[in-house]
Design brief:
three-stranded antiparallel β-sheet, 2 helices, single chain, 6 strands
Length: about 80
C-alpha cells in the first residue's frame, strides 16, 4: 500500500492549520498548535517546512521554532484527539 507524503496547509490568515499524516486529517487553531508544541501563546504568523519525515514550525513574529518527526507530531495529535472525546 502506497502512503501519501505528510502535508500541512495554513489557512485563515495563519489562524488555522490542516495536516494530513498517514492518510488521516487533523485541523488545529494556531493557539492549539502552539500548545501542542509546548510553546507560549503568541501572535499570528506561521511557516511550516516538511522535509521527508520532519516538520519544522516557524512562528516568525516571536522567533519561536520547533522541529518534530512525523511520528512525534502524529502521536501528539492523536493524544489531543483522544483527550477531546
Amino acid at each position: 500500500m502506497v502512503q501519501s507524503a505528510p502535508s500541512a496547509l495554513v489557512i485563515d490568515q495563519g489562524s488555522k492549520v490542516l495536516f494530513r499524516i498517514n492518510g488521516k486529517f487533523y485541523e488545529l487553531t494556531q493557539k492549539a498548535l502552539r500548545l501542542l508544541l509546548g510553546l507560549p501563546q503568541g501572535p499570528a504568523g506561521l511557516g511550516i517546512t516538511i522535509d521527508r519525515n520532519r516538520f519544522r514550525f516557524e512562528f516568525t513574529e516571536d522567533n519561536q521554532e520547533i522541529e518534530l518527526t512525523t511520528d512525534q507530531l502524529k502521536r501528539r495529535l492523536s493524544k489531543q484527539v483522544a483527550a477531546k472525546k
